[in-house]
Design a protein that fits this description.
The complex is a heterodimer.
Chain A: E1 7-12, H1 15-25, H2 30-33, H3 35-40, H4 53-56, H5 58-65, E2 77-86, E3 97-110, E4 113-124, E5 127-139
Antiparallel strand pairs in A: 1-3, 2-5, 3-4, 4-5
Chain B: E1 7-11, H1 17-25, H2 35-40, H3 50-61, E2 68-75, E3 85-91, E4 97-104, E5 107-117
Antiparallel strand pairs in B: 1-3, 2-5, 3-4, 4-5
Amino acid sequence: MAADNTWVSTFAVTREGVSAFCAATGTTHPLCRDPAAARAAGFADVVAPPLFAAAYALGAVNALQHDPVAGIDAARAVHGAQSFRWSPDERVVAGDVVETTARVGARTRRGTLELVEILTSSRVRERWVCDGRWTAAVRREAGS
Amino acid sequence: MSRPEPQATRVDPPAEVGRRYADASGDHNPIHVDAAAARAVGLPGPILHGMWTLAQAANLVADDPFALEAIAVEFRGIGFPGEPVEVTVQRDEDGRGATFAAAQGPRELLRNGRAALRP
């Protein structure tokens, strides 16, 4: 953990990684699958589909969730909700390194659950590419 | 002008979806790939990654994935890799967004899905 209660990860985007993600999720856009099409559109290599944020930002989320300092009991948590917002003009391209910071957002109680937001912000070369909100639904211990 | 009709699309999870999505995303929680690990936490068997199901909805709400401005969803019941997923998308009249949900039979997998699209 960094001194300011943030957790950081870096993720090297590769053509093979984008290709495997597209194959696993059924994403067929030529900019994501075809290096020649991506180059013809002005990119250095294939472009990651937006939902690839689930891969490149995950390291920071996992680092936060598994650090007891963050106060999330991972063994009692399930993924309750998810949102992403993307930059209108920055794309993540094979060859990029994505740096993500994660921090704990709002914590709210709903019945027997505590909903804990993990907020991520991802950048490539200091330029913002994506924010994520990963909501963990944590079963509360009896009496807590 | 009436709102466009909701469109339901059947998506069949591919063979080895859990292993393939785990390797592609880095989400290696064993409940998605290992029957014994799933049973150990009270599940009947390996379950779909919610993020895989969300990616299916994203494929269907945006013809151009790079038009996606934002997406938000709640994960509900658990999904199983051997069963088809029905994704329902209702596009906004103005083409700037859509609401969506996903289910396996009576079990909701995704609800209150919302996507915003750039023109």
